């Protein structure tokens, strides 16, 4: 992204014109009076008539009622019937027009902007084009019926709602009633038009696509809510509260079009989810859920518990039932499914396992629901039930119920002490204290390495362990003791008391820290009141008091966070020069002069638990519509994957394990659903969102942001580094001024450093290594040694049965079908080397390579790739009369490049030949060459053990002249061959005598066999002379082998080709190491180095599937050779797996929600998808670009997003 100035247009000219055509349509409910082109007058007249039709029919009923010709009920029914008939006519015309024009109504949920913009040719006032333009119709037949019926019902009830006689009775003023009557009918006409004629795009858009046509029901739903309150007032017996509510709502009814236009009222799906979440959290003591299904199920079960408590007659039974139900519902019930399915992997759907190392402590407590966990939970439940039952039985009926002198007195002081200890022990765990304003002097300073950090952090770990015991094992029982002795248990048969106590007993386990704070506040209020009574407060009961305190504290924390976000936007719009627009001074002056209104907007958004929406991220604040804490409607885990996604997928497991410890210790502060954290390590950014929290578990979503940093991303990443450096890289001794957080106004507050197993990425420019002539000569020698070592190792693995079949391709391909994964066991030491160009499903018969027969790339992580035409396939097609080659994988190691030949790889193109004359290349005798030796498939070895190291017969049939091989014989390292043969002989036969080893080394037939195969491979890859240029080395490393005389033979044997390619890559890595660390001093050192390469390294290309699999399997080291085209240099990339410190900070959650709300409005309503728009430019304080990236697709673009990760926190 190219950063632009602060005065870049908020909307480009095209989008501005589009917005000013769409917004009036939204205000009026659907009529399109501004088209952008000339249209006949009847188009506007027809829309105006349809818009006023409900008022006309309602006016008929109102007039008949005012003339006392009909009663109110019959007049309303008449208006509704007339509107129903009109709706039937409109829908009939729409369906007729659709069939007449031969088109089908779009079934996609998203508005088609291109259709909205295209110019329509109108012929006459009722032509199909005109009808379809005004009333597009419904996509589903069921909605045609439903919306039509609702239109009639809405008109009938609306007429009844705004009768002049009813309004006059409410306000006792004819003038006021007349004004409300007229404006109310405007509201009704808007709702009717959007329901039955044409639905306008809503500013409050939650879903990217309205697949099931829910949007037309939004406005009528709110009108029905107003009508329901009025009906309750009509048929109730003089309830003053309902009378006042009806009067107020009739006035608010007039302003509904304004609320709809501003996007303050949520759509139906968002309203339902938000309502269930708020009720579950504050009314029933639960937690926001990680998915909509879990939210619905938990809400239903929790509501049923509250209803049961209301009807249970015995207070003791209520205490026991509430305690047990609250404990069970606060546990991670998703583990029950894991237990039933007997899955031992807690993170479903992710490959979060390591090779040779256990990133996940699967056997540690809490990861799965095993016997230990069940025993602990069952013990806690029994102790809680015994405590609650005994205390309630002996102390609930005590005469003295005073908080000081009664039985609750000692428990109250114990709770205050527990809260003070838990708060203090949590506060010292993080990098900052007192709300992030001052540095914590006890936190380790100068984080140089992981070991020193852990040593310095030992004291804090002890404090964290004490806090865990107090918070999770002592506090719940103390709170239960306080609740079960409460006097409100004597008056259970009251809805508020029943709901309050149900919530209180659930909150003790669901959120122990918050429940402890709320209980301490209630106790302090009682202690502050002393002997004085608080009539209203005392009548609520302890359960309702806790509910009120919890709600007020949540709204207060939201208000403070929103206020901080507001001040950040206001101040930085002027102080940051790159954010200072020409309108900045005017906006600041308006905000200063209208500060009561700004404060009211902030307070209203906090009361509604709705995001504070800064329009275009400018200091223009609106109240976004209420929505769930997750902010997005889709399933958690959607992302825009790329090759770099694998690094986040690998680290997510270790990160979850580190987060488990951090959440339990409190080093990340108070962790509540909706909290956001940002982690930073090298060039990686990890976005962590808390989805769900319960007793002993937490559910998070981990997102990975792009590694290829844009300019905006770089600016914000640099500021993130500065914020973390100020917190963690500080000197040992600090004064008061240095201890203050200079970045307190930033959206990011550093919390802690976590030890996580991640890949450290190092890149080196190979100038002076890859272009050195001495190194190029050395590379040929090393290549022969490595190739011999790999051939001998192959023989040993085949003898031990470690290969999947007799074909090496099965072992080295890394390209296996799902069935092969379940039936074959790949040895841990097998190194995967694969071609990055094969994407065909190859044909095979009985003579083909069976190990590759059923392999395809259809299960590739990044989706299917277009088929490529390989060397073997093109060659087969170019030879008439030849049968189709029975090939396995495409040419191994060949480099895929997009070319002018569509899906054909450049490496697959035939060499140029002059007009089919077949000249220009070395002559190859396709008949029998008398000089090519015909060897027996069973050589006559002098040593019986030599049969173990025999090579397949097909490897000995290279079409090369013996004289040519004889010239290259000096290149064969005989001493290295005998040394390696002796070492591998011991590995193959176990204990072998010295005579047997000596005989094996002196077997000339075996040596000549390996000489021929090794030299044939050397010639086939063009390495018979010293390597001449870095470009040739790079091509050969990538598998793009130039044509040579023996290449066809070599490529026909896939396993031998893979061995040769692997040998060259190993030899280049050997060259890289020797240039950096010095030459190998002995054969033993070289042998051990090659063993290390095979065991601990993946040496290949970043684009290969083996690279991706090795990262997920947590191979200790990875190496790749690259070419920087812009700089013209070659680079070596080394990934090393090690435990590193990932710095984590807390983000302002309300700032994130506000920016996401603006993103949703700007892209879904204003359709402002310009990549250079103002609201996506870098902002060092708000971290605007990073926040946009972290949004769920399609609005955001994280390259990795995990499914909900459940992990223990005890």
From TrEMBL:
Chain segments annotated as transmembrane: 42-61, 73-94, 140-163, 175-200, 251-274, 295-312, 374-395, 587-608
Cellular-component GO terms for this entry: membrane
Cited InterPro entries: Pecanex, Pecanex_C
Residue ranges of domain Pecanex C-terminal in the record: 1033-1202
Membrane topology of the entry: Multi-pass membrane protein
Keywords, sorted A to Z: Membrane, Transmembrane, Transmembrane helix
Pfam families per UniProt: Pecanex_C
Homology family: Belongs to the pecanex family.
Protein name: Pecanex-like protein
Organism annotation: Cyprinodon variegatus
């Amino acid at each position: 992204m190219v950063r632009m100035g602060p005065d870049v247009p908020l909307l480009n000219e095209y989008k501005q014109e589009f917005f000013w055509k769409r917004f009036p349509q939204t205000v009026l409910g659907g009529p399109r009076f501004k088209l952008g082109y000339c249209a006949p007058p009847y188009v506007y007249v027809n829309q105006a008539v349809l818009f006023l039709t409900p008022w006309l029919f309602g006016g008929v009923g109102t007039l008949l009622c005012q003339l006392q010709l009909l009663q109110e009920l019959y007049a309303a029914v008449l208006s509704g019937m007339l509107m129903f008939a009109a709706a039937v006519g409109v829908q009939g015309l729409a369906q007729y027009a659709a069939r007449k024009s031969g088109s089908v109504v779009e079934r996609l949920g998203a508005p088609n902007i291109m259709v909205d913009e295209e110019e329509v040719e109108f012929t006459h006032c009722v032509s199909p084009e005109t009808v379809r333009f005004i009333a597009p119709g419904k996509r589903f037949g069921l909605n045609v019926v439903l919306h039509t019926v609702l239109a009639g019902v809405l008109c009938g009830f609306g007429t009844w709602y705004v009768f002049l006689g009813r309004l006059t009775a409410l306000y006792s003023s004819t003038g006021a009633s007349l004004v409300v009557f007229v404006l109310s009918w405007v509201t009704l006409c808007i709702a009717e038009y959007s329901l039955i004629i044409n639905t306008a795009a809503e500013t409050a858009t939650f879903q990217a696509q309205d697949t099931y046509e829910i949007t037309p029901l939004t406005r009528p739903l709110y009108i029905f809510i107003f009508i329901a309150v009025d009906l309750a007032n009509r048929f109730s017996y003089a309830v003053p509260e309902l009378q006042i509510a009806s009067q107020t709502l009739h006035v608010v009814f007039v302003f509904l079009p304004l609320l709809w236009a501003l996007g303050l009222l949520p759509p139906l799906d968002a309203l339902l989810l938000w309502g269930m979440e708020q009720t579950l959290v504050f009314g029933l003591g639960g937690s926001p859920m990680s998915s909509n299904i879990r939210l619905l199920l938990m809400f239903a079960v929790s509501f049923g518990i509250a209803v049961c408590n209301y009807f249970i007659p015995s207070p003791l039974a209520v205490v026991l039932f509430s305690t047990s139900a609250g404990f069970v519902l606060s546990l991670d019930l998703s583990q029950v499914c894991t237990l039933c399915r007997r899955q031992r992997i807690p993170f479903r759907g992710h490959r979060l396992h390591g090779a040779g190392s256990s990133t996940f402590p699967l056997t540690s407590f809490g990861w799965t629901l095993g016997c230990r966990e069940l025993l602990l939970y069952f013990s806690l439940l029994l102790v809680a039930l015994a405590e609650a039952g005994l205390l309630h039985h002996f102390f609930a009926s005590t005469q003295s119920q005073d908080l000081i002198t009664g039985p609750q007195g000692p428990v109250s002081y114990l709770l205050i002490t527990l809260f003070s200890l838990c708060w203090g022990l949590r506060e010292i765990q993080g990098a900052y204290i007192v709300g992030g304003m001052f540095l914590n002097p006890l936190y380790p300073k100068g984080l140089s390495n992981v070991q020193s950090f852990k040593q310095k952090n030992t004291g804090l770990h002890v404090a964290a362990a004490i806090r865990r015991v107090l918070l999770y094992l002592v506090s719940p029982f103390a709170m239960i003791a306080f609740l079960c002795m409460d006097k409100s248990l004597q008056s259970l048969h009251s809805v508020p008391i029943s709901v309050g106590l149900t919530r209180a007993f659930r909150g003790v386990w669901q959120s122990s820290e918050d429940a402890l704070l709320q209980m301490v506040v209630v106790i302090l209020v009682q202690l502050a009141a002393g002997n004085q009574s608080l009539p209203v407060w005392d009548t609520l009961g302890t359960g309702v008091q806790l509910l009120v305190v919890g709600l007020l504290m949540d709204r207060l924390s939201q208000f403070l966070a929103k206020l901080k976000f507001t001040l950040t936007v206001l101040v930085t719009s002027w102080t940051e020069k790159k954010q200072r627009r020409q309108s900045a001074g005017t906006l600041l002056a308006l905000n200063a002069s209208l500060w009561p209104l700004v404060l009211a907007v902030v307070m209203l958004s906090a009361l509604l638990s709705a995001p504070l929406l800064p329009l275009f991220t400018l200091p223009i604040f609106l109240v976004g519509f209420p929505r769930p804490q997750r902010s997005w409607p889709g399933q958690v885990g959607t992302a825009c994957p790329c090759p770099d996604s694998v690094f986040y997928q690998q680290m997510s497991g270790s990160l979850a394990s580190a987060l488990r410890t951090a959440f339990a210790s409190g080093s990340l502060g108070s962790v509540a659903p909706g909290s956001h954290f940002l982690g930073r390590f090298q060039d990686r950014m990890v976005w962590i969102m808390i989805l769900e929290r319960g007793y002993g578990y937490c559910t998070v979503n981990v997102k990975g942001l792009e590694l290829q940093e844009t300019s905006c991303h770089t600016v914000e990443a640099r500021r993130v580094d500065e914020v973390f450096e100020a917190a963690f890289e500080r000197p040992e001794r600090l004064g008061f001024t240095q201890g203050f957080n200079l970045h307190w106004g930033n959206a990011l507050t550093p919390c802690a450093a976590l030890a996580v197993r991640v890949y450290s990425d190092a890149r080196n420019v190979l100038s002076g290594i890859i272009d050195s002539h001495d190194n190029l000569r050395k590379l040929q020698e090393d290549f022969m040694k490595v190739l011999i070592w790999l051939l001998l190792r192959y023989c040993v693995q085949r003898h031990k049965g470690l290969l999947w079949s007799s074909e090496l391709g099965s072992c080295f391909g890394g390209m296996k079908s799902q069935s092969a994964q379940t039936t074959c066991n790949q040895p841990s030491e097998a190194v995967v080397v694969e071609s990055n160009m094969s994407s065909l499903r190859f044909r095979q018969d009985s003579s083909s390579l069976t190990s590759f027969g059923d392999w395809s790339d259809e299960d590739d992580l990044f989706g299917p790739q277009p088929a490529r035409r390989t060397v073997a396939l093109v060659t087969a097609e170019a030879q008439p009369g030849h049968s189709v080659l029975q090939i396995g994988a495409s040419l191994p190691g060949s480099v895929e490049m997009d070319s002018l030949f569509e899906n054909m790889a450049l490496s697959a193109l035939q060499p140029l030949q002059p007009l089919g004359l077949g000249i220009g290349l070395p002559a190859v005798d396709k008949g029998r060459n008398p000089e090519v030796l015909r060897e027996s498939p069973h050589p006559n070895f002098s040593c019986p053990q030599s049969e173990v190291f025999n090579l397949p017969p097909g490897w000995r049939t290279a079409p090369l002249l013996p004289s040519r091989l004889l010239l290259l014989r000096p290149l064969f390292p005989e001493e290295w061959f005998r040394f390696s043969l002796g070492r591998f002989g011991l590995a193959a036969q176990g204990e072998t005598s010295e005579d047997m080893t000596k005989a094996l080394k002196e077997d000339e037939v075996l040596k000549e066999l390996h000489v021929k195969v090794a030299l044939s491979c050397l010639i086939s890859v063009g390495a018979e002379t010293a390597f001449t240029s870095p470009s040739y080395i790079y091509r050969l490393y990538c598998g793009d082998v130039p044509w040579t005389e023996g290449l066809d033979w070599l490529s026909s044997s896939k396993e031998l080709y893979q061995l040769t390619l692997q040998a060259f890559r190993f030899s280049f890595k050997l060259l890289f190491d020797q240039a950096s660390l010095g030459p190998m001093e002995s054969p033993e050192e070289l042998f051990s180095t090659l063993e290390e390469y095979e065991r601990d390294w993946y040496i290949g290309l970043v684009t290969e599937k083996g690279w991706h699999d090795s990262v997920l399997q947590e191979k200790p080291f990875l190496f790749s050779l690259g070419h920087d085209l812009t700089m013209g240099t070659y680079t070596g990339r080394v990934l090393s797996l090690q435990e590193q410190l990932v710095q984590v900070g807390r983000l302002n959650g309300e700032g994130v929600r506000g920016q996401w709300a603006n993103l949703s409005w700007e892209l879904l309503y204003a359709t402002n998808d310009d990549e250079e728009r103002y609201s996506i430019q870098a902002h060092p304080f708000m971290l605007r670009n990073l926040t946009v990236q972290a949004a769920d697709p399609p609005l955001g673009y994280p390259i990795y997003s995990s499914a909900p990760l459940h992990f223990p926190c005890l």
